[in-house]
Write a structure and sequence with these properties.
alpha/beta, 14 helices, Rossmann fold, six-stranded parallel beta sheet, 13 strands
């Protein structure tokens, strides 16, 4: 049965793992169904197709915002009042609801949009802390009672309870699923993201690779902690003399703070064997993955996984893609990276940068160990394919249709 399916992602400009997952799913579903993709503003479709290796020709793009205030809630942005939250959701909710979709899929990080369809899937990359309305006085209680009734009439449920309007919730890792249950009280099905095969590897070179978007989380810190990796590489003087290089690749956020941090990173890398590939196209990324011997990842370092779980790597698609091309991962022992890499089997996990340096030197000095882990990494990555992701999503959609 051909269905009408809508997918929302209002952060497509980031061009990160969540955006790849959105477009891979939209492409897959559009082969059998009518698909709408709701985005924040008009996008360059050919550029997205090249960057993510997808065919978007059968998908209808619907810009919802066109330069207005953001309609998602971010852990990095101060919370607005409840009336503002409701007002921001009302227009997109009505526009989407008017399409009378069979299934609505929310894959927009930080979204608090109630489901505008009878069946909905909320694909959680990491949960936001739920709002708890302040009802400490009779006036506040009366206000929130009024808002409860108004939101239920206009949106079908109150905004603080938006997650209850979705038929199913998925998580991109067990790490995320645990936090969904803690913070939202919902059981989430673990559906690992759609990772591309970047192999087969070519002759490996003395390249250490890191792939991740460049974006600030405030306090002079890059979310993906690229500066930590640069500091470690600068300590590996013997490796540098032997010809080893560090390559960074990823999209760059447009804000001024990120631009300043990237400028400092480039300044700190001068006169070193360090190379930057900003907003690289897929062919460039695939070439880097195939030639790289090692893959580094540091997202979450310096932040407590218990107190600041949102700043961890919730899964780590780039790690899997590097493994698929035979690059041995040496990655932080936190968040979803522990689900991607099995220590000393297909890569190494580290807790401190000094251990990252030691493990890297060990692999550089032991070519047989490097080759063995490379083979195992390619084998381990297979279970995180686009095909596995699409099959899992088909099963959930099919189940929801049968339950209705």
């Amino acid at each position: 049965m051909k269905m009408k399916i809508g997918i929302i992602n209002l952060g497509m400009q980031a061009r990160g793992g969540g955006e790849k997952r959105t477009l891979a799913l939209a492409e897959h579903l559009s082969r059998s169904h009518q698909v709408w993709l709701f985005v924040n503003e008009p996008l360059d479709r050919p550029s997205l197709e090249r960057y993510f290796d997808v065919d978007l020709s059968r998908i209808s793009f619907v810009p919802l915002n066109r330069g207005q205030q953001p309609i998602v809630r971010s852990q990095y942005r101060p919370r607005r009042g409840r009336l503002d939250d409701m007002t921001a959701q009302l227009s997109p909710f009505r526009r989407i609801k008017a399409l009378n979709l069979d299934v609505f899929i929310n894959n927009s990080q930080g979204s608090i949009l109630p489901c505008p369809s009878a069946r909905g899937i909320y694909m959680c990359m990491f949960p936001n802390k739920p709002s708890t309305p302040n009802r400490s006085s009779s006036l506040r209680r009366a206000y929130h009672l009024f808002m409860d009734r108004l939101e239920k009439r206009l949106l079908g449920c109150s905004v603080p309870d938006f997650i209850d309007s979705y038929s199913a919730v998925t998580a991109n890792s067990r790490f995320t699923a645990e936090w969904v249950e803690r913070m939202w009280g919902r059981r989430a099905e673990v559906i690992y993201s759609a990772c591309d095969r970047m192999g087969p590897p070519v002759a490996k070179e003395k390249i250490i690779l890191n792939v991740g978007r460049f974006t600030s989380v405030g306090a002079g810190t890059l979310y993906k902690q690229q500066h930590i990796l640069l500091d470690v590489f600068k300590q590996l003087t013997a490796a540098q003399r032997d010809g080893w290089q560090l390559h960074f690749a990823g999209s760059v956020a447009r804000d001024e703070e990120t631009s300043a941090l990237v400028g400092r990173l480039k300044d700190a890398a001068r006169r070193r064997s360090v190379f930057f590939h900003f907003d690289a196209e897929l062919d460039t990324l695939r070439d880097l993955y195939r030639r790289a011997s090692l893959y580094w990842h540091a997202t979450g370092y310096g932040f407590s996984a218990c107190e600041q779980p949102a700043l961890q790597e919730h899964f780590g698609m780039t790690t899997i893609e590097a493994m698929s091309a035979g690059a041995v991962p040496v990655v932080i022992n936190s968040g979803g990276q522990r689900e991607a890499v099995t220590h000393a089997v297909d890569g190494f996990l580290w807790n401190e940068p000094s251990t990252l340096a030691d493990q890297t030197v060990r692999l550089i000095n032991d070519p047989h160990l490097l080759e063995r882990l490379s083979r195992q990494a390619m084998w381990s990555s297979a279970k995180f394919s686009r095909a596995a992701f699409n099959t899992s999503m088909d099963l959930i959609i099919g189940r929801l249709m049968c339950e209705s």
